[in-house]
Structures are given as structure tokens and as C-alpha cells.
Amino acid sequence: MSYVDGFVLPVPKDRIDDYRKLARKAGKIWMEYGALAYHECIADDVEPGKTTSFPRSVKLKDDETVVFAWIVYKSRAQRDRVNKKVMADPRLAGMDPKTLPFDGKRMIWGGFKSLVKF
Predict the structure, then answer these.
(1) How many angstroms separate the CA atoms of 87 and 9, rounded?
(2) How confident is the model at residue 1, as a pLDDT?
(3) Which CATH number applies to 3-97: 3.30.70.100, 1.10.10.60, 3.30.200.20, 3.30.1330.40?
(4) Nearest Cα to Cα of residue 5 among 35, 32, 25
(5) Contact, 39 vs 70, CB < 8 A?
(6) Per-residue model confidence (pLDDT) at position 94
(7) How far is CA 86 from CA 45, 48, 57, in A?
(8) Given a cut of 70, is residue 59 above it in pLDDT?
(9) What are phi and psi for residue 93, nearest 5 degrees?
(10) Helices in the chain by DSSP H: which ranges?
(11) Are the CB atoms for 26 and 76 separated by under 8 Å?
(12) Strand ranges in 1-118 using DSSP code E only, listed in sequence order
């Protein structure tokens, strides 16, 4: 079964176009190196919950929105190979965390094994 990297992150509303540009660039690179699918989604119907929610998970501020993203791979081993190549790619070099169009300190990410797939 496939392997998925998942991400949830806050993006300032006035930086959505900058984020979209970065996501398009990154998606092309991930796909070039072998990812099976690359998705970046922006919140549409996401309300803060009383205990937990997407907004609460990233300590969302009033001037931000939530992005939910995932990348699909054949396996964890293939994901590790792809990510190693992506991280070494000079097209992504020089991405200073201070200039990224989101707060990476509040980004949540992780790798997931498929449990059910149709």
C-alpha cells in the first residue's frame, strides 16, 4: 500500500499567492522525483473547535488561513529516496525560513502508512 506525508500549516491571508507559487514549484519538483500525487488545499469549511480543530492545531491567527497538504508515494522507502533528492535540489536551495510565506514553527507534518484504500 502507499505511503503519505501529511501537512497542516498556517498561511497569512495576504501571502496566499506567494504560498501558491511556492507550492506549485515544490509540487513539480516532488512529482519529478517520483511522488505519485501532490495536493495543497486551502481551508473552506474549517471552524475552530472547542477542544481541537485544524485552526487550533496551528494556533491560527485572525489574519491567517489553514492549508492542508499531502504527498503520496509508493512506499516509505520510496518516500525517503524522493525526499532526499528534493531536499538536495538546488531549485529549493536558499529557502530561508524567515522569508517563507508561512510560519514553519507552527506547521504540523508526519508520515503515514495506508490503513484503508479504495
Answers:
(1) 19
(2) 84
(3) 3.30.70.100
(4) 35
(5) yes
(6) 61
(7) 32, 33, 27
(8) yes
(9) -65, 150
(10) 16-32, 54-57, 76-88
(11) no
(12) 3-12, 37-42, 64-73, 108-113
